[in-house]
Write a structure and sequence with these properties.
By secondary structure, this protein is of the alpha+beta class. The chain has a single domain, classed as Pnp Oxidase, Chain A (Roll). The protein is built from 4 helices and 7 strands; from the N terminus they run αββββαββααβ. Strands 2-1-5-6-7-4-3 form a 7-stranded antiparallel beta sheet, with helices on both faces. A hairpin with a 6-residue loop joins strand 1 and strand 2. It starts with 9 loop residues before the first helix and ends with a strand.
Length: 144
Amino acid sequence: MAEYIPSTADWVREQVELYEGSGGSAGTTLRDTGLPVIIVTNRGNKTGAIRKTPLMRVKDGANYVLVGSRGGAPTNPVWVYNLRADGSVEIRDEAEVFSMQVREVSDPAERARVWDLAVAAFPSYEDYKNRTSRTIPVFIAEPA
């Protein structure tokens, strides 16, 4: 079993601990917004270690949409490179845990459709897109 290496960001580490430690009954929203988040567990592409990241919950039927916005920063979040290297993930949505496979969305029509779902769930994504010159990566997590 690979080692779990918690995030170096305090708020990420604390939210993952609260979310998982409560069995998905606490820590399930983005700070004080009340907007729901999921925990994405994946393997680090350099270390092979287990990584856990809270992301906005964006549903597309039985699938989840994962948006690599990083608040509109000029570079992608590290988890984007992890998912590109290994698409096997576990998603915790409150008390439920799913084994899923991710793929990056490249088709323009599919990307536009799921981007609209993401913005509906978390309107700040549109601001983040306008804040950066990079194309924000979008992934679909589907049941494995």
